[in-house]
Amino acid sequence: MPTLTRPRYPERPDCWHIYYGDVCVGTIARRVGNPFDTDPWEWDCGFYPGSHPREHQSDTAATFDQARADFEEAWQVFLAKRTEADFQALRDQQDWTARKYAMWQAGEKLPSQKPSTSTSTPGP
Length: 124
Prior knowledge:
- This protein is an alpha+beta fold.
- The protein contains two helices and five strands.
- It has helices spanning 64-80, 84-105; strands at residues 4-5, 15-20, 23-30, 41-45, 57-61.
């Protein structure tokens, strides 16, 4: 069973993406633009596709350590309801998105953007 890893997000020193194996399952980050008297940290747990959007959880915390503990508690609840098919649904979506952007970068059209080759007779 994979473990959670928390690499820093390279574009923000106060943000960590949380992975379960090869799947990004959440983030912990310092909040930006919030009033000074509110919690400075936020966490986000879940992924889609592969789960129902209402299963996704997030909240704020006073410290990084509290955000991490809260995330891990939410993760245990979220993970208990996941199957390998849920993780595969996310991987498949990520693969499709990568292929789509590669096609666009190469100047190709997606199959749905190409003219239809079917022949139909116009109506009366």
